[in-house]
Amino acid sequence: MSRASKITFGVSCLVTAVTVVGVHIVQGMERETLHQGPIKDAKRLAEKKKLKEAKVELDDETKLKKRTFNINDHDKQQELRKKYETMQPLTGEVVTKDGEVVSSSLSN
Q1: Which residue range(s) make up the domain with 47?
Q2: Where are its TM segments located (predicted)?
Q3: What is the biggest distance separating any 2 CA atoms in the chain, rounded to whole angstroms?
């Protein structure tokens, strides 16, 4: 065997060995990455569930505040209506500038 063929054979064997070792290392890293996937998913889902529960609590508080505000506002509007009806009763009639009374079809 000539020197050139021995060198070519040696380099080919070395490249093959490096390729095999490299493939095994990459497969190990991929396996570890795949193993971490479900763990990360479980953490992500737990955090998402926590946030959702916190949001539901906030939504309930917000709804309660809005409902309370609406009830208070409705009561104030009813009081104002009574106050203004005492000042100027609502008869459903419209009086024009000329003093003509026009019946309105709008009801209270």
Answers
A1: 8-87
A2: none
A3: 128
Mean pLDDT of the chain: 86
Q: Distance between CA 86 and CA 80 in Å, rounded?
A: 10
Which has the higher per-residue pLDDT, 33 or 16? 16
Half-sphere exposure of 35 (CA within 13 A, CB side): 6
Residues in the chain: 108
Q: What pLDDT does residue 106 have?
A: 53
pLDDT given for residue 1 in this prediction: 84
C-alpha torsion angle, residues 68, 72, 74, 77 (rounded to 10): -160
Q: Are 93 and 101 in contact (CB under 8 A)?
A: yes
Question: How far is 68 from 57, CA to CA, in rounded Å?
Answer: 17
99 belongs to a structural domain: no
Number of domains making up the chain = 1
